[in-house]
Amino acid sequence: MSLYCRIAFKRKSFWCYRLLSSYVTKTRYLFELKEDDDACKKAQQTGAFYLFHSLAPLLRTAEHQYLVPRLSLLELESFLGKFGQDAQVIEDSVLIGCSDQHEAWFALDLGLNSSSSMYASVPKPEMETELRGSFVELRKALFKLNSMDSSLLFTAQALLRWHDNHQFCSRSGQPTKKNTAGSKRVCPSNKIIYYPQMAPVVIILVSDGSRCLLARQSSFPKGLYSALAGFCDIGECIEDAVRREVAEEVGLELESLQYSASQHWPFPNSSLMIACHATVKPGHTEIQVNLRELEAAAWFSHDEVVTALRGEGPYIQQQNKTSPFSLPPKLAIAHQLIKEWVEKQACSSLPA
């Protein structure tokens, strides 16, 4: 009887699995790869690898955009062999996703001297020639990547950087060991498990009704303005962090705020960008810029922002020089916030 029950249960489980959505099956497959080293190693046999060098992804230029090449395990092993590298370096790869057909995707940086690799980094110029591509700083590639590729590369760079920066246990000081998928590191001496983490950051587009407030830091490209942003302090909720950042950076007090969306952002380290719209109290719009945080901040009209979104921004005065007014790239959540505000303004101006 018990044997019959076990067979019936297996059949039921099989059909339940078949009825699950592709999203659920893919998510559970990725969970299995993260938890089972043998399953992950098996997935590498039929998977695809994205290559990096010192956290810069390998890209190829095609017309006005970047293409992201992928290598199979056999192609990667053959490539490494040409440069006298042992295939053991593949153990440094990290799992970054999979297709609906369960082709696993991995990222491998051949320019970092990780703890598990005993080999010198592959020479960059020779590698670029062999692979017919270039290793491009990810920030500079943002304007020429599609959303799917950028999401994978963001995840890959964040994981690769985290592993490179967390090779030792903070308690024992001993080297930690990465699991095959790269979803965690374990200290062999005390069994403490370390998981990759993101820092929460609030990003806020402030409006007074007809204008939006944009600011810039000295590190921004010339003429680029964006929404206000800052890290959440320990103990803060999102609402408190938003109100504090706006008060600190531009000296304004908010009347209301509304959550919009979120985005993983790998710069300068891995962050979770929590995007909000906010409005100031009526009559309280005088900006007092905190020069320790910002280089400049100003109110911009609907027309000025629309023109900048089209890539035809007006020129603005900046440090005794005139620079074209520009906005963050489309892949950045700041761009989404600004576009949402523009669309809302357009709708509110329509006759009832």
What does this structure look like?
The chain has 352 residues and is an alpha+beta fold. The protein is built from ten helices and 18 strands. It starts with a helix and ends with a helix. 34% of the residues lie in helices and 26% in strands. Helix 2 (22-35) packs across helix 3 (37-46) and helix 9 crosses helix 10 (333-348). The strands form four sheets. Strands 1, 2, 3, 4, 5, 6 and 7 form a seven-stranded mixed β-sheet that branches.
SSE layout:
Layout: H1 2-19, H2 22-35, H3 37-46, E1 48-53, E2 56-62, E3 65-67, E4 71-72, H4 73-82, E5 94-98, E6 104-109, H5 124-131, E7 134-135, H6 138-141, H7 147-165, E8 177-178, E9 185-186, E10 193-194, E11 199-207, E12 211-216, E13 228-231, H8 238-250, E14 254-265, E15 271-280, E16 296-301, H9 302-309, E17 315-318, E18 321-324, H10 333-348
Helix pairs in contact: 2-3, 9-10
Spell out the key features of this protein.
352 residues; alpha+beta; 18 strands; 26% strand
